[in-house]
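Lab notebook page, bench 4
Experiment: in silico fold of construct C2
Operator: M.H.
Input chain length: 188 residues
Purpose: comparison with the prior construct
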Amino acid sequence: MKKAISLSFLLLGSTLTQADIIGAKGGLDYWHTKDHDKSGSIYAQIEHPIPLVPNVALRATSIEGDTDSLNNVDVYGYYEILDNDLVSIDLGAGLHNISGSRHYNDTLPMAVADAEWLPGSQVSYYSKLNYAKNSDATVTDISAGARLQLLPAIYLQAGYRHYEVETDNAGGHSDTIKGFTAGIHLDI
């Protein structure tokens, strides 16, 4: 028993010494979609060294179309599962809120998987999957792309995003919004 407790404190201590004091990521993207002229998102993440307490993230997306608009906000907590020079993987859970549409107005529980390959290098690659579902709707939001470092902590990024929402209420309705993204990413 004493060995297990000592090992737990040793692991906890090594986690604290390896963690950053505090970190932040954020950015904004323009999203070029076929049927929606003004689309984009803004996001922010806060990372801290406290074990067992999740890091926090927020992303807001606005999609304006010819006949309808759609706004969504993702709020979630996540854990860094891996964080080294080759790959960084975050897993989390939270809420996905959809509003501003005549077809969708709901808050759904959501799972998040986020990966970055070669983080901190001159060129890195990222992918993100958000999957939200309740009894009335399902949302799948997938994005992937590349980042080019301009200055320390400042990156240009470009990629592709695929957002799909399906609802079973009121006779059912679905939308797929997809297209290329371009923006700026900060990693402090």
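Observations: DSSP finds one helix and ten strands in the chain. Strands lie at 23-33, 38-47, 55-64, 69-83, 87-99, 106-117, 123-133, 137-151, 154-167, 173-187.
Next step: discuss at group meeting.
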